[in-house]
Known about the structure:
The chain has 130 residues and is mostly helical. The chain has one domain. The chain has helices at residues 3-27, 35-61, 67-95, 106-126. It is 78% helix and 0% strand.
Amino acid sequence: xxxxLLAQVMGGVYGLLAIILGAFGAHALKKKLTLEQxxxxxxxxxxxxxxxxxxxxxxxxxxxxxxLDKYIINSFVFGTLLFSFSIYGLCLSAAxxxxxxxxxxxxxxxxxLLVVGWALLLYSFIAPMF
Length: 130
């Protein structure tokens, strides 16, 4: 899939799912999750929405004529997937009494990919100055 299309489609999918999962968390999970789990779930939704918006904005603003642009988009797409969805899995599995512990290390890997994406984006802004 072309990188610009990947950014647009995944930005739209992540935005759509953030709204659905946010409403699901606020209503259906309110009585099922602890306050700490609910807060974690909300953090996943927020980061997902932030990066959904970012992907859509970048899809209209990056030139996509350099490999760096592809690395930036891939870092945000896969970082969001690993970060937010591992949090959802941890919260929902814990609420059902069968916490999927293997997801614990996935969350920081996703977070690291998000950091890499932001660092690469920053680099793309300042590199032309040198």
